[in-house]
């Protein structure tokens, strides 16, 4: 459990951003919204992450987390913990309760810097490669902060990709950080499909490594077709 908790005076669940984008089955422009993930959709959200994110995100897909029962159970528990912090966000299309996309956001606190230990060695590899970059970046010291907003998974349902949903899920962090009193958000973006939207909304490169360098450090992600893995930061005034 984290030592950070959402300010009780802040309405929850709350809508952070509304935007217009192409509909799913026509070229009509329709309204979408990014809002806090409600309690009664946490199970659906985790199922979405297991079905889509763990397969399609290059690092998780490469080490086969979607077919590793131990990793599936451990990720499930981690996402349940994350959802309890009440900062995870979901995107819905107007008039529909279908999950369009998700960002499993979490607030990381200086006071909680304990090691994450998993039984699944594949999950441990993903986690250690991420945590290793975070340690290298010295985020708390560099920005003089006690807490920052991070994430364990950005995912858009395959049929909704390429219409700006990923970008808006990331943009929603701006009003959210302001409301929560957080000034920094940091995330590992593993491929151009998320690095491009992140740069568009104001994230900049904190640490850039190649998958080859990760391999030299013992973190093997076979078959990933991309060159760069980026820890990216956005400062929210
Ligand atoms: C990454 C993901 C969330 C992006 O969602 P999305 O709604 O399709 O994102 P957007 O439409 O806002 O933007 C995607 C941008 O990346 C670009 N892009 C996507 N894949 C790309 C690739 N392989 N190479 C170069 N650019 C790519 C798109 O062209 C688009 O840029 P543009 O608007 O300038 O054309 C979605 O593809 C996904 O769920 N992927 C699987 C899980 C994953 O990888 N998550 C991110 C982990 S950090």
TrEMBL record:
<dbReference type="Pfam" id="PF00583">
    <property type="entry name" value="Acetyltransf_1"/>
</dbReference>
<feature type="domain" description="N-acetyltransferase">
    <location>
        <begin position="17"/>
        <end position="233"/>
    </location>
</feature>
<dbReference type="InterPro" id="IPR016181">
    <property type="entry name" value="Acyl_CoA_acyltransferase"/>
</dbReference>
<protein>
    <recommendedName>
        <fullName>N-acetyltransferase domain-containing protein</fullName>
    </recommendedName>
</protein>
<dbReference type="InterPro" id="IPR000182">
    <property type="entry name" value="GNAT_dom"/>
</dbReference>
């Amino acid at each position: 459990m984290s030592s950070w908790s959402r300010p009780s005076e802040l309405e929850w669940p709350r809508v952070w951003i509304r935007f217009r984008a192409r509909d799913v089955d026509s070229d009509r422009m329709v309204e979408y919204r990014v809002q806090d993930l409600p309690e009664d959709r946490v199970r659906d959200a985790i199922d979405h992450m297991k079905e889509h994110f763990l397969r399609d995100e290059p690092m998780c897909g490469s080490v086969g987390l979607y077919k590793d029962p131990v990793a599936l159970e451990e990720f499930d528990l981690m996402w349940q913990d994350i959802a309890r912090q009440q900062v995870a966000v979901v995107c819905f299309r107007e008039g529909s309760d279908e999950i369009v996309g998700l960002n499993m956001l979490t607030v990381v606190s200086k006071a909680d810097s304990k090691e994450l230990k998993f039984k699944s060695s594949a999950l441990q590899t993903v986690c250690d490669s991420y945590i290793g970059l975070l340690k290298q970046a010295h985020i708390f010291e560099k920005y003089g902060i006690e807490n920052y907003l991070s994430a364990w998974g950005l995912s858009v349902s395959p049929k909704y990709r390429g219409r700006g949903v990923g970008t808006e899920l990331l943009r929603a962090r701006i009003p959210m950080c302001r409301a929560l009193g957080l000034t920094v958000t940091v995330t590992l973006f593993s491929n151009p499909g998320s690095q491009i939207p992140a740069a568009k909304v104001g994230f900049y490169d904190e640490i850039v490594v190649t998958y080859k360098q990760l391999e030299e450090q013992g973190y093997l992600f076979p078959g990933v077709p991309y060159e760069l893995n980026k820890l990216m930061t956005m400062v929210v005034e």
